[in-house]
Design brief:
The protein is mostly helical. It contains eleven helices and two strands, in the order H-E-H-E-H-H-H-H-H-H-H-H-H. It has a domain of 154 residues: Tetratricopeptide repeat domain (Serine Threonine Protein Phosphatase 5, Tetratricopeptide repeat, Alpha Horseshoe).
Length: 223
């Protein structure tokens, strides 16, 4: 595989936002699907995911009835199974009955993005951000949508906005590094983001390869 090719592949990192609508605390579940050049896709350790939940839990005033909560849970199961049509149908029903909460809109955006319906995804993520402008998952997902539609400066702003409030949010950190590396050609930005990410995720060998590659490219530029 050509150097850097894997970095294009992982831009579609999957962020799955899962919360019970019957609970006042929205738990953030982070899943990174990393398709690298060497070996199979590394995964986030359970301990790291739990730490992310504790650090990045987003509180929402959720007051949904049991039927809405049940439909939300069913929708999440469909999305996890890759059944996006069924999941989006249920989530549309959820937001109609409980429109004041960000979580269903975020998951709608993610599902639409997987289906290739980028305008619908952007519309949903905008609604989520209207409800919670600093939501880390929503802003990171918007960064991915910006990148996919060629709006690289806006993508960078979305990631940086997230990291200013949530500096330990690794999904935004890694995607900012890839954006700077592969699209903005800002090697210093990319190297800084990869290094912070690698310190937090030392078992991710792929990113260590990227760091070495960047350092080599930067050295060549200096000469």
């Amino acid at each position: 595989m050509r150097k850097g090719q894997g970095r294009h592949a992982i831009m579609n990192s999957t962020l799955l936002y899962n919360t019970s609508l019957g609970n006042v605390t929205a738990l953030l579940a982070l899943v990174l699907t990393l398709i690298g050049c060497a070996g199979g896709p590394p995964t986030v350790p359970v301990s790291q995911a739990e730490d992310d939940k504790k650090k990045l839990a987003v509180h929402e005033d959720v007051a949904a009835d049991a039927d809405v909560a049940a439909d939300f849970d069913k929708a999440m199961k469909h999305l996890k199974a890759g059944e996006y049509e069924k999941g989006t149908d249920l989530l549309q029903n959820v937001v109609q009955r409980s429109p004041g909460h960000a979580a269903p809109y975020i998951n709608l955006a993610m599902a639409y993005e997987k289906m290739g319906k980028l305008p619908a995804a952007e519309e949903s993520i905008k609604k989520a951000l209207e409800l919670n402008p600093e939501h880390p998952v929503a802003n990171t997902e918007y960064g991915l949508l910006y990148r996919k539609t060629g709006r690289f400066a806006e993508a960078r702003q979305a990631y940086e906005r997230t990291l200013k409030r949530y500096p330990d949010f690794l999904a935004a950190r890694k995607n900012l590094g890839i954006l700077c590396d592969m699209y903005l050609r800002d090697l210093e930005c990319a190297l800084a983001q990869y290094q912070v990410y690698s310190t937090a995720m030392p078992d991710d060998k792929t990113v260590r390869v990227w760091i070495a590659d960047l350092e080599q490219r930067r050295s060549k530029q200096a000469h």
